[in-house]
Amino acid sequence: MNIAGAFLELGKRILLHGLFWLVVLLFFTFFFGFEGAGFNTIITFSAFFLPVTMGTTYAFVYRLIPDYLILKKYLQFVLYSLAVFIISATYISISAFYGIILTAGYDYQENFPLTKSLIYILISVYLVVAIASAFSLLKYNYSAFAKNEELKNRILEAQLKLKEQELQYLKTQIHPHFLFNTLNTIYGLSLANKPSTPEMILRLSELLDYILYQTKKPLVKLEDEVNHIRNYIDLERKRFQDTLEIELNCDRIPLETEIAPMLLLPFVENSFKHGKGNDGKLQISIWIKLKEENLDFKIVNSIRKSSERTVGQGIGLQNIKRRLDLIYGDDYQLNIENRKETFCVYLQLNTSKFKADV
């Protein structure tokens, strides 16, 4: 804030305080009115109590409330408040005595009984102090609430940014992992001069388009994910030839059904990478079932009996678990079973419970 702005803000505060105390003075004038006294006499008498009212009010608003009450130092607040009340009551009594002398003369007992009016004066002064203190408390509470809300919003914003960065990092890990295995497949076919190599390159280009562009979206159509699973299976069929037995059972998928991108494809890729049968053949079965908004995905691949692979091992499965946690929270179930001759992955999630804002 520049100097001009600071002076403008100070001027506004002085004006508001001045208007407030002018209203207080008029209130005292109305409250202290007594029979037979003129307006000038009453307002002069009321002005005697303005300094002590201002001092008591500012003591509570700028000292006792922020330094003790807000900080929950209740004992100190009570003790200092009592001290302020005693001092202010003394000054009010002195101000009342001299105010009556100067405004009503020495004949004050008949027109202005001090013993009766002093109670009214104390009530009126402390009523102003109480109103100002209550307003100050409301202001502090509102300010604290606003700061807490701002802090919460900043924390949420930071969490969302970290979540977005982590998801992007996980995606960059998945893509090279997937592409590396696919390129190895094409490389093997090119060495054997297979005529199907151009077709596989075309399939791969479609997968690359999906990975590089479609996966930047927070959601993709489930139908697109399944179609690219089919493309990937076609690529692997060329590589495995007669050593692959695979079946894909998929329900009809509504066009509006969406999931996070690259959510199912890594499981399929993982089964090709690690699966192997005792008879030299790789057997893979995939089921994709959709019941309203619940997606059931299951994939089973054969493994050798001597396989020492542990459940959940590998970068691909670890990343997909973390992505599921970030995107779907508690609205999914992932079960991985490493049996004697098969490796099974079962995923169930609610497609309407997408939580990631990326």
From TrEMBL:
The keyword Membrane applies. GO terms for cellular component: membrane. Residues 166-244 form the Signal transduction histidine kinase internal region domain. It comes from the Bacteria. Residues 146-173 form a coiled coil. One of its GO terms (molecular function) is phosphorelay sensor kinase activity. Keywords: Coiled coil, Kinase, Membrane, Transferase, Transmembrane, Transmembrane helix. Gene3D superfamilies: Histidine kinase-like ATPase, C-terminal domain. It holds the Pfam family His_kinase. The chain crosses the membrane at residues 14-34, 40-65, 77-106, 118-138. PANTHER family: SENSOR HISTIDINE KINASE YPDA (PTHR34220). This is Histidine kinase. It comes from Christiangramia oceanisediminis. The lineage of its organism: Bacteria, Pseudomonadati, Bacteroidota, Flavobacteriia, Flavobacteriales.
